[in-house]
Structures are given as structure tokens and as C-alpha cells.
Design brief:
histidine kinase, 264 residues, binds adenosine-5'-diphosphate, alpha+beta, 9 strands
Length: 264
Amino acid sequence: YYLLHNFSVMLDEEEIGEGLVLRDITKEEEIDLLKNNLISLTSHEFKTPITTIKGGVETLLRSEVEWDPEFKQEILEGVHEDIERIEHLVNDWLDISKIDSGTMYVERNTIRADHIIELSMELIPEQLTEDAILTFDNRLREGFTFFADKMRVQQVLINLITNALRYNDSSPKTIVITLDREEGYTTISVADNGIGISDDQLEKIFNRFYQVDVTATRRTGGTGLGLAICTGIMEAHEGKIKVQSNPGNGSVFTLYFPEKEGEE
Ligand code: ADP
């Protein structure tokens, strides 16, 4: 359903309740709405990095000027950062299309948790991890394995760990990664001591484009698609993602991967 508007229900000039006008939309219409949303969002988000890349490259192309090597380096680093930003947007967009068309396929193998966490950590920008303390479950050293798609799990973990560091004003930032097995699932939890999420926002953060604080997110360059993609990836694993939070004190995101049939 798509919410058109809400209204008050009156009886003898007294308000006795609230009503909602919902329109039953088809799956196709829903996808269209989301696509329009995605297109307007991304075209806006693309504009800034493209403008900076263009400006940077045009500056360097001015052959009549002998640029200082340090200045040149600075411009190239900026251009590189903006290209990465565009790459990120395109990848997010492709993943959302896969989720919508039911083609977010996963290739599951038995993978080692320590390897996957190490690989994920390597891909997180250094400026995010420099004032952070990461603690890992002891079981990581014992070669703990689970059944999942290596690249997709890595993507989900990078997202959760990046969020845990971004939405965090504590010093030092602490992240604890825990592994467990419960009722047919292998679980991986990422706990942070960040700003936390209030009860009424807990469900919404998994929705596309939803961001609790747009100004803070603008600063961190998020798109609000990360957790929606994580949900799609976990569903493709026939698993789930859950969150618990204590506003002001931090959050815990837990991934549930179904165990391989016939395995303990
Ligand atoms: P993005 O980070 O690009 O905004 P996400 O879908 O990853 O998009 O997250 C949606 C929103 O959920 C974030 O904008 C933020 O407000 C909130 N959020 C996500 N992870 C955390 C966290 N660990 N602590 C506090 N808030 C979080």
C-alpha cells in the first residue's frame, strides 16, 4: 500500500480518531515509485562528484601552467575519491535492481569467519578505523566456519562496521564482533558504542533511503541504501538481520545465516 494522506475522524464536531487513505498499488507501480525515487536521488548525488571531477581534470589540463607536484597530487586524490563515490552509487543501484528483479543470487560455500572479517577490515577506510578499538570473539582464532557467499558477506560486514564507526561520537570508538550458533543459525554480531537508534526508528532504518539524521549522513556521504541492500543479501541467504539498540549507548546488528543442511 502507498499512503496518500491521513485525516481526522469527526463525530459531532469531536475528533474521535484518525484515518488513513491508502492506495493499493501493484508490485509494478511500487517498483516504478522506487525507481523514480532512486533516479532522482542518484542523479542529484551524482552531480556533485561529477562537477568536482570535471573541475579537477580541467585544471590539470591547463598546459600553460606548470603545476606544483603537491597540488597536482591533491587534485588527483580528490578526483579519485569522487570516482569511488560514483562507483559506490552505481554498485548500490545495481544491487537494488537485483533485489527487485529477484536475481540477487548467492553462491554459498563453507567460509572461515576470521578470513572474511580480516578481508572486510582491509577495505574499510583508514580514517574511520584510526581511533577505534576492535575486539573479536575468541572463536575467530579457532577457525570458526559458516555457510555463506564470501563476497556478499564481506559487503554486509563492511556496511555494518562502517556504520558502527560513522554513527559514533565516542572516543575511543569500540566495536565488538561476536560469533555464535543458535537454533540452526550461525550468527555474527557487530556491537558498537555509537549514538544508538531510538525504538521508533529501529524498523525504518532498513527501508530504502531512510536516514535518521540527514545532515549527519550528508557529512558521511551515505545514501540510505546500505541496510536495505544488507537485508536483500541476508534474504537471499534465507537468513535475516536484526538490530537492538540503546539510544546514546550503542547498537548491535546481528546477522543470521542458516546452517548448511546436515551440519551441526
Ligand atoms: P547510510 O549509512 O548510507 O545512511 P544505511 O542504510 O546503512 O544508510 O543506514 C540507514 C540509517 O540508519 C543511517 O543513516 C543511520 O541514521 C542509521 N544507522 C545505521 N547504522 C547505525 C549504527 N550502527 N548506529 C546508529 N545509527 C545507525
